[in-house]
Design a protein that fits this description.
This protein is mainly alpha-helical. The protein folds into 3 domains: 91 residues, Fumarase/aspartase (N-terminal domain) (Fumarase C, Chain B, domain 1, Orthogonal Bundle); 240 residues, Fumarase/aspartase (Central domain) (Fumarase C, Chain A, domain 2, Up-down Bundle); 97 residues, Ribonucleotide Reductase Protein R1, domain 1 (Orthogonal Bundle). It is built from 20 helices and 6 strands. α4 crosses α5. The site of arginine has 9 residues, from α7.
Length: 465
């Protein structure tokens, strides 16, 4: 371990300054309190960079060995929570580099050759985000697998389908759940697609213009598992569109889960009573002993707001920045981390919560019989007997009005009573007026017939692998 060069200034960059920053400015400009989360990625990136420097003869093999030895110690210290993070060293990069130099001397000071914190931080975020995306994708699959189990169980359980929150037509609960499966499938596609653009290497761009050292970026990309290198150094150090894309995908995912949450809350209300939610996702009231509140779905709905907020933060962060790197970009991390944390926790909870849904099939059926849910089926029946659709609509509207007056449902009418609305009605009408008949008749891809729901579940399982 040699240290032959001049002593290091107080800060890595403070050589040209005549007065130190105030404590407030130090705190204001530092990011170490939050970017230390990228320590593992920072070390990984530095090791790949050092190996490339040694391969290219830019640093010696001895330097590389010293750097590797020092980084192993640092990784241990961080793992054990013993690393002394210091605000004086501003961010995760300078903290680690300073410790490295304390441990191994000159080799530590040579690590930054041909590199800048600008391409270093962009690399760290991409490595960090890649891991986060992989976690998100695994959790979406877990959520989907459990959702599919529930959908299959209820492939033939009738419930009212709503438009305008008014009973519209019978659907199966399984079909309703499969709508959320489709949403989550598109969410997964979006994250997977975003990952492609995350997985490109900025290192080698240096501060903004590239470097005069004979570097090998392809080697570093391979070492770090990147698919390719970023093709323009200015773009690579400055743009954060990949993080914005992640946040946009996260916003959509949260929007979908927020909609499902709203339904769980509504279904759980004693006024509706379609489901019960396992106690572990609910809390009581400190004042009203009878209460069981759906806190978890409510929080999912609420946290969607902060995820949307982070997306707007990042978009706003970028919109006024000239090329290339600006310190504004330091503000990208907290919204990004918070978004990933929120989405990961929410998916974890949701994967389990889906298994805690107890369906009250009688209540769903009861709601159907109160809403004239098979009125469209009656109209379609008359059309098939030759009546123009508008006339059929009118005839059924009269039947509904009459049912309302009598306080009964459409299948409760006798054949003669139904004939009064249209002479085309025959004995076979009762097959379409029943909920089961209505469901079974919608037997095409995308329809609610139990047979179709089971097929949709099977296709989804095959896709999940
Ligand atoms: N902490 C900085 C960030 O998060 C690292 C890059 C700093 N680069 C610089 N030239 N000051 O963006």
């Amino acid at each position: 371990m040699t240290d032959t060069s001049s002593p290091q200034p107080a800060k890595a960059w403070s050589g040209r300054f005549s007065e130190p920053v105030s404590d407030l400015v130090k705190r204001y400009t530092a990011s170490v309190s939050f970017d230390q989360r990228m320590a593992r990625q920072d070390i990984r990136g530095s090791l790949a960079h050092a190996r490339m420097l040694a391969r290219q003869g830019i640093i010696s093999d001895q330097d590389l060995a010293d750097i590797e030895r020092g980084m192993a110690v640092i990784a241990e210290e961080i793992e054990r929570g013993e690393f002394a993070w210091s605000l004086d060293d501003e961010d995760v990069h300078l903290n680690i580099e300073k410790r490295l130099t304390a441990l191994v001397g000159d080799a530590g000071k040579r690590l930054h050759t041909g590199r800048s914190r600008n391409d270093q931080v962009a690399t760290d975020i991409r490595l960090w985000l890649r891991d986060a995306i992989d976690q998100v994708l695994a959790l979406i699959r877990e959520f989907q697998a459990n959702l599919l189990d529930l959908a299959e169980q209820h492939a033939a359980t009738p419930m009212p389908g709503f438009t305008h929150l008014q009973v519209a037509q019978p659907v199966t609960f399984g079909h309703h759940l499969m709508a959320y499966y489709e949403m989550s499938r598109r969410d997964a596609e979006r994250f997977a697609d975003c990952r492609k653009r995350v997985n490109r290497l900025p290192l080698g761009s240096a501060a903004l213009a590239g470097t005069s050292y004979p570097i090998d970026r392809e080697f570093v990309a391979r070492e770090l598992g990147f698919d390719e290198v970023c093709a323009n150094s200015l773009d690579a150090v400055s743009d954060r569109d990949f993080a914005i894309e992640f946040c946009a995908a996260a916003s959509l995912l949260m929007t979908h889960l927020s909609r499902l949450s709203e339904e769980l809350i509504l279904w759980m209300s004693p006024r509706v009573g379609f489901i019960d939610l396992a106690d572990r996702f609910c809390t009581g009231s400190s004042i009203m002993p009878q209460k069981k509140n759906p806190d978890v779905p409510e929080l999912v709905r609420g946290k969607t707001g902060r995820v949307n907020g982070s997306l707007i933060s990042l978009l706003t962060l970028m919109k006024g920045q000239p090329l290339a790197y600006n310190k504004d970009n330091q503000e990208d991390k907290e919204p990004l981390f918070d978004t990933a944390d929120t989405v990961i926790d929410t998916l974890r909870i949701y994967a389990d919560m889906v298994t805690g849904i107890r369906v009250k099939a009688e209540a769903m059926r009861g709601a159907l019989s109160q809403g004239y849910a098979t009125a469209t089926d009656l109209a379609d029946y008359l059309v098939k007997k030759g009546l123009p659709f508008r006339d059929a609509h009118e005839a059924v509207a009269r039947a509904v009005r009459e049912a309302e007056t009598r306080g009964c449902d459409l299948p409760d009418f006798s054949l003669d009573e139904l004939r009064a609305f249209s002479p085309l009605v025959g004995e076979d009408v009762f097959a379409v007026l029943t909920v089961e008949g209505s469901l079974a008749s919608r037997n095409h891809v995308g329809g609610t017939a139990p047979e179709q729901v089971r097929a949709a579940v099977a296709r989804a399982r095959a896709a999940l692998g």
